[in-house]
Amino acid sequence: MKKWELYSGTELKPQGWLRDQLSIQAKGLSGNLHKVWPDVRDSAWIGGSCEGWERVPYWLDGFIPMAYLLEDEELISVAKKYMDAIISFQKPDGWICPCDAEKIPTYDTWAVLLISKVLSVYHGFSKEEKVLDCLYRVMKNFYSLLKDGTCKLFDWGKYRWYEGFIALNYLNKYYDEPWQGELALMLKEQGYDYTEAIEKWKRPVNRWTFETHIVNIGMMLKAEAVSCDLLGEEYKDLAKRLFDVLWQYNGTAVGTFTGDECLSGLSAVQGTELCAVVEQMYSYQQLISYTGDPFWAAQLEKVAFNALPATLSDDMWSHQYDQLSNQIACERFTAKCLFRTNSREAHLFGLEPNYGCCTANFSQGWSKLVYNAFMHKGDTVYCPISLPCVLDTEAQYISLETDYPFKNSSNFTVKAKKAFKLVIRIPDFAKNVKLDGEDFDGRNATVCFAEGEERVVAVSFDTIPEIVKRPHDLNSVVCGSLVFSVPVAYEKKMLEYEKNNVERKFPYCDYEYSPTTPWNYALCDTALSRLEKKVDPVPFSSQAPALTVKARVKRIHWDKLDGFDSVCAVSPSATSSDAPAEDMELYPYGCAKLRMTEIPLIG
Predict the structure, then answer these.
(1) What is the C-alpha to C-alpha distance for residues 444 and 179, in angstroms, rounded to an integer?
(2) How far apart are CA 21 and CA 14, in angstroms?
(3) What digits encode the pLDDT tens for the residues 531-566?
């Protein structure tokens, strides 16, 4: 049984910097794809002639919560238009994907799993009975097709079988019929067992495989948590075991795994796909909810506050397919390609660098992060991550005002409509914790409220910058959940063009970023200090970061990677320097679009 239940979008609303972030997303690519991108604007899902498989469902999965959380009536009407159109094309037998009946046996039913997830998300907001009925018939039809052998899981569907449990768990709140358990069992039996792939994760190869595909892996981490109850299985914390292997052999400084597009080892110049970032975040959300383990909350905020903003432009009109920890330029490779299985332009900021899956899918990152502000069970409310949000239910009103992770204070303004307990997670890295001004020693602060009580609960703590060892004799600077990088200034080259009948035109064009300042630095002192500043209207601003870390650095000799003009070598050739020491403000990783994150410590 789940440790914590998620609140609905009608009970939880973002405020402060998190609402600003969602507003920027809505004004950028996420909120405008239906106007400018053929695969959404003219999708076969709504009767058009363009892509009719994963892209519209991917987009809606993040667009729908974004629209409702912002209470933006125009965006809500767009979501309704798309969902009404999709539902209107559902066949009498329940089949919903834009695929003719005779082609179903060869159709990769990953799309069925994904659209069922979207239907559950939409019903959670709209509460329309026709949406729940549509979802029921989609899953009942899928059960029938699998049972009679008309279709089976293969390729993407086989490696993403657990995604179907998002909808099955949702349906289980409204229906309790034998076929639901049978479908759950069929999904697992036909799906891939990732424990068989562990040895393949330890040594990257320049070959594309489903079992090392970084997005599959990001999704997979939640598999046991979302499936074990319906399957009647004991939860054995498989995610932690698999995470440990992935982290040991492919972990990055910001909590992601390298994968461009498949697992790529421990080099800071191998990329991580954006789809994997948001899918890791969603998996961690499910793991927090099911297990209550603070380990997953720590992982989620590290990825969310570093990897997600780093791969998006400030205005969120462009994004990367692959981000690099040590990223000194984002320029097309003209000779050989750096990436193991991706294209020469996968690290450019643009409309759809490499593939359009990330164009559609990145929207869910910020939208679904909101749900991690508060969770509940019985008469207890849990705050796993301090996010500026308002919770308004029949039992309580809580307004959480905070600039975390940039500043380490949070105020909970509480009005208890009924008696309840509030449990606040205190991060492991927090020092000198204060609860209502008094010293607090512990990792969960529990505050009880009587019915009718109104008061403010204040939590604050210190975070101390530290140097963390990384592979290849390199180091990263970490302060709390934020990772810091040497920022590299750059000039942008705008690329407007048309490719495969898809137009790139400002503001939805592509960009190359070329460095204009040195990048070859090493830390030369272990003394580090925080510099707090005002939180900009662009929370993860590349021009005005809300928090920096002051460090002493020296220029060192650091070659380019053999065969590349725009990629640094994995590690420097020199371990000493005669250059003068300099004071430098390190930027949060998410603010530094060009950056050096893993660097030596010398002297």
Answers:
(1) 41
(2) 10
(3) 999 999 999 999 999 999 999 999 999 999 999 999
